[in-house]
Each structure stands twice: as C-alpha cells, then as structure tokens.
C-alpha cells in the first residue's frame, strides 16, 4: 500500500507517528493509498522548519519573492492536468471540474505576483513642521492553513501564495481524504526556487490540527471547512493568541422570480447544484421558487437532473462524479429518505442510480426535492451532496426573509429580469457573496472571498486585499530630522501638529 508522507523542510518526511488513514478511490470504492497522520512532534518539526526559514525569507527582497511566484505560476499552469488528475482520483470530481479549481487557484497566485504593488505603504509629507508620517506592512511569521476535502488545490491556494508573497512561511494541513495534490504543489514550489522550509505540508487529523492551534510558534491560522470545526478553530486559536480566519459551511439559496427565463435559470441551477456532486461551499442547495415560477422550474430542473451524465471523474463523458466517501453517500441517501418521509415531494430520486462497472463507487444521482419546508432536515442541514431542495414562496420579500432567517450566509443568487428586485435583493440579504443571474458567485482573486453569519468566524475574508491584510501587520512611523541637533526646548503637553 502506497503511503503519502509529509513535506517538511523541502523534502518528503515520514514523521514519527505510525497512525495512518485510508485514501479511497471514490469511483471504485477501493482503497488506493494510506496517508500518514502527523503527531504533535511531527507538527513541531514542521513549525520549526518554517520558523527557521522565516528568518531569511522575511528578509528577502520583493523582487526575489516575485521571481519565485512567477516561476510557481508557470509550473502550476504547465502541470494543471497532473494536479487535476490527482484531485479527480482522490476526490472523485470530473477532471474538467478539477482543472477549473486549479485555474481559480492559479488566479490567486497571479494576484500574489503583484505583491510589490499590494504592499505599497502610505506616505504623508509634512504632517507637522519638519515631520513626515508613513506606514508599511510586515509579515507575521509562521502561518498555518487547515483545509477541507472539496477543493484540495484551490482552497490551500487561497492561502499560501498570499502568505508567502507577504514574507511569511507556511505549514499546510490539508484534508486527509485527498492529500496528494498538496504534495504535488509542494514539489512545484520547490522547483520554482522557494527556499526549503518556506512551504511545508503535514498530513493529519484532529491531533495535528490541535498541535498547530496550540503551538506557540504559529502566528496565524487560516481555516476552511465545516461550521462546527470552524467555530472550534476560531475559539481555540484566538484563545492561544493567534490571528484566525475560519470559513465555515453553507446553505446557499437561489431565488427564482416569475420574470426570470426558466430555461436559463434551470441550466444554471443544475450546474450549481450538481456540479462536483454538490460538494462545493458555493453550491446552490436550495431553490426558492417565487409564485408562478415554481411548477415550470421544478419540471425543467428535474428533466435536466435526469439527463446529467454520472460516472467516474476520469471518464471524459462524465458530468458528475461520486461523492467523497461511503459514509458521505450513506448520509446523503439517508437525508433524501428523511426529506420524503417528512413530506417533501421526490421529483427526482438519485438513490436509484447505478453506474455500470462501478457498483462499489460512492455514487448518488442528482436529486430534486420539491415542496420542502424550513422545518425539514433536508432544509436545515448542509447536505453537501447532489440534492436540490425547492422551497416555494409567495413574494420576493418572503424569499429574502427566508435567506436571512437561515443561519448560514456564504453565497446566494437571484434569477430575475427586474433590476429593481435584484437591487432590493443585493442590498437586503445578509450574505457575503451575491449573484445576480450568476449562481456560483465566487469572486475573482483580486476581491476577497467570505461569508457572513455561521459561514465565517473572525473578521477577515480570504485572499484579495483582506488576505494581504490578514497575513501582515502595519507599522506607522512618525519621523523628524532636525536640521541642527540640539536642545529645542522641552514641552510637557501632548504633542499636536503645528
Ligand atoms: P471538515 O470541517 O470536516 O474538515 C476541514 C478540516 O478540518 C480538515 O483538514 C480536517 O482534517 C479538519 N478537521 C476535521 N475534524 C476536525 C476536528 N474535530 N478537530 C480539528 N480538525 C478537524 O470539512 P470537510 O468535510 O473536509 O469539508 C466540507 C466542509 O467545508 C463543508 O461544510 C463546506 O461547506 C465547507 N467549505 C467551506 C468553504 C468556504 O469558503 N466557506 C469552502 C470549502 C468548503
């Protein structure tokens, strides 16, 4: 059995722990590898390597850092297919979708290539007679990233290119379910000329996460994952005096108004609900159909759901792959049954799907549940599978109120041809990322990504300008160069500008 090991100090490292976790091929249901699970001692080794590297990397020039970032960008671009295939084999998503996530991650690297501009400070000349005032930002030290299974390349890339460009060093603890993309990315950083120890990967579970949260050598923690763990990471990390940004789960609603094109909306809804088997934090899992839009919408999405080609991620014909584990499949199948038992109408039942030749794979077919109400488990829980719940509302205001009553606030969308309704929606929803006739409104890398409410703990969104601010701290310098050194008369009043 192949063992996936850590990457510490610029090379593979087996670590001291003998604990491992299986890595499955979700398309076949077979175990394909095992991943080492780091102990606290292994985490300490990685943090020490990163702390040593920080001494020189934090002093490197902006142009030296930029050269490495440009080289890294070229290597990720050249190796996109290899990274995508590694993702598809362990996550299950189709290769074209995995290529898309690498592309979105690469956009963050491109943003970080502009670090000399992003780190420009401010300068005020002559704030008082003979006095100038200026500010600049410096790196924090060793930063840690703890990431989820659903975007094994893109989500870590929301973090490490920006942190490293700012002069920090980094320890990544990726999901133990699909660890290989991170090792590949570590090799590319090294090939790009990043000094040893600046980027490290420790694989692991709760033990390694807790070791990072408690380690006095870690200055900041970026987390992306489910809401209960995000809340825990934020509480424990901040209790230990660290800067923490923790992005949590989601339950994203799309509102469809009667004036929308149902053909357009249903196309986008099925891709947003079933793309990546619904395992996206920005997946649309709830369609709020307003008034007369409902019947036509359910009919259209049901037809398109049934037509979705489900199969192994490596098969070029597949539009949707399996879910991540057998346990995830069983949970999703259970929730579909609960939805039907609690009174929803099962318009399309994905539990019936079989993929010939892949009977042991972790497949669930696209599922549409109509007439879902807010009390039902399928509405209340983040299903994280290919299940679209349709809730019916009488007006746009009722639909907006529904979005706002939900504890999550990651993304939301509206389908309409009314600018007035769209504007009311964009101003009125308590959600971080909003789409107007765009179902998965993931911002470009030069904006920051983040939700509201239970979708984010901490005040900082990720990547973009807020990412640069998160990975640096400011200094403000007040400076005077007296022409003639010597006594100028002591004054005991609080200094004010003259
Ligand atoms: P998860 O919370 O189970 O795991 C995320 C990370 O936390 C992993 O590295 C995992 O090893 C670690 N972890 C798990 N349990 C832990 C524990 N008890 N103590 C300490 N660490 C622990 O999430 P997942 O299942 O890998 O990913 C899916 C979730 O991530 C969904 O809820 C999804 O909405 C969310 N997500 C959110 C965003 C966002 O931007 N808000 C993006 C992607 C995914």
Concise structural overview:
The chain is of the alpha/beta class. It has helices at residues 40-57, 62-78, 80-91, 95-113, 115-118, 154-165, 180-191, 206-214, 227-239, 262-274, 293-307, 326-341, 377-380, 396-405, 419-428, 464-470, and strands spanning 3-4, 6-8, 11-13, 20-25, 30-36, 122-128, 131-139, 142-146, 169-173, 199-201, 218-224, 243-247, 252-256, 284-290, 345-348, 367-370, 387-393, 408-409, 411-415, 433-436, 452-453, 456-457, 472-480. The longest helix is centred in the N-terminal third of the chain and has 19 residues, at 95-113.
Number of domains: 2
**CATH class term of the largest domain:** Alpha Beta
Question: Low-confidence runs (pLDDT<50, min 5 residues)?
Answer: none
Q: What's the average pLDDT?
A: 97
| Tally of contiguous helical segments | 16
- Apparent shape: globular
- Helical content stands at 25-40%
Q: Please indicate the percent range of residues in DSSP E strands (runs of 2 or more).
A: 15-25%
Give me the Rg, rounded. 25 Å
User: What would you call the structural class?
Assistant: alpha/beta
**How are the strands of the largest sheet arranged?**
15-16-17-14-13-19-20
Overview of the structural elements:
It is built from 16 helices and 23 strands. Helix 2 (62-78) packs antiparallel against helix 4, helix 3 crosses helix 4 (95-113) and helix 4 (95-113) packs parallel to helix 6 (154-165). It is of the alpha/beta class. It starts with a strand and ends in an 18-residue tail after the last strand. The chain has 2 domains: 3-248 and 455-477, Aldehyde Dehydrogenase, Chain A, domain 1, CATH 3.40.605; 252-436, Aldehyde Dehydrogenase, Chain A, domain 2. It binds nicotinamide-adenine-dinucleotide. Nicotinamide-adenine-dinucleotide is lined by residues 146-151, 155, 173, 175-176, 205-206, 209, 224-226, 229, 247-250, 281, 382, 384, 410, 451, 455. Residues 146-151, 155, 173, 175-176, 205-206, 209, 224-226, 229, 247-250, 281, 382, 384, 410, 451, 455 line the site of nicotinamide-adenine-dinucleotide.
């Amino acid at each position: 059995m192949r063992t996936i090991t850590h990457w510490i100090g610029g090379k593979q490292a087996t670590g001291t722990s003998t604990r491992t976790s299986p890595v499955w091929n979700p398309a076949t249901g077979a175990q394909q590898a095992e991943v080492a699970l780091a102990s606290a001692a292994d985490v300490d080794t990685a943090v020490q390597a990163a702390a040593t590297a920080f001494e020189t990397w934090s002093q490197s020039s902006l142009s030296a850092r930029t050269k490495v970032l440009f080289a890294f960008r070229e290597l990720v671009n050249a190796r996109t297919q290899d990274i995508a295939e590694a993702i598809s084999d362990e996550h299950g998503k189709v290769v074209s979708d995995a290529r898309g996530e690498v592309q979105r991650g690469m956009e963050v690297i491109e943003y970080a290539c502009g670090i000399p501009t992003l780190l420009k400070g401010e300068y005020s000349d002559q704030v008082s007679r003979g006095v100038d005032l200026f500010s600049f930002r410096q790196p924090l030290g060793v930063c840690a990233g703890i990431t989820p299974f659903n975007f094994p390349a893109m989500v870590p890339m929301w973090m490490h290119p920006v942190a490293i460009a700012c002069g920090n060093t980094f320890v990544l603890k990726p999901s133990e379910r699909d660890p290989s993309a991170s090792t590949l990315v570590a090799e590319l950083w090294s090939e790009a000329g990043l000094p040893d120890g600046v980027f490290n990967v420790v694989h692991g579970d709760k033990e390694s996460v807790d070791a990072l949260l408690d380690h006095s050598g870690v200055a900041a923690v970026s987390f992306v994952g489910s809401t209960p763990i995000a809340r825990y990471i934020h509480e424990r990390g901040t209790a230990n005096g660290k800067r923490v940004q923790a992005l949590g789960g989601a339950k994203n609603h799309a509102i469809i108004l009667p004036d929308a094109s149902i053909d357009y909306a249903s196309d986008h809804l099925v891709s947003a609900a079933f793309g990546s088997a619904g395992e996206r934090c920005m997946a649309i899992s709830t369609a709020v159909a307003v008034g007369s839009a409902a019947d036509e919408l359910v009919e259209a999405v049901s037809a398109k759901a049934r037509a979705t080609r489900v199969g192994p991620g490596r098969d070029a014909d597949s539009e949707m792959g399996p879910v991540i584990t057998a346990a995830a499949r069983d949970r999703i199948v259970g929730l579909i049954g609960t939805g039907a038992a609690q009174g929803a109408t099962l318009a399309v039942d994905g539990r019936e799907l079989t993929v010939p030749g892949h009977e042991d794979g972790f497949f669930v077919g696209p599922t549409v549940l109509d007439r879902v109400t807010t009390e039902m488990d399928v509405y209340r829980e983040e299903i994280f599978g290919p299940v679209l719940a349709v809730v019916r509302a009488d007006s746009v205001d009722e639909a907006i109120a529904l979005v706002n009553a939900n504890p999550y606030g990651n993304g939301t969308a509206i389908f309409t041809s009314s600018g007035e309704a769209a504007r009311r929606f964009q101003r009125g929803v308590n959600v971080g990322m909003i789409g107007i006739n765009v179902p998965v409104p993931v911002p470009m890398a030069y904006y920051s990504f983040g939700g509201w409410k239970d979708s984010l703990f901490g005040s900082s969104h990720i990547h973009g300008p807020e990412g640069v601010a998160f990975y640096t701290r400011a200094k403000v310098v007040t400076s005077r160069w007296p022409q003639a050194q010597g006594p100028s008369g002591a004054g005991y009043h609080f200094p004010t500008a003259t």
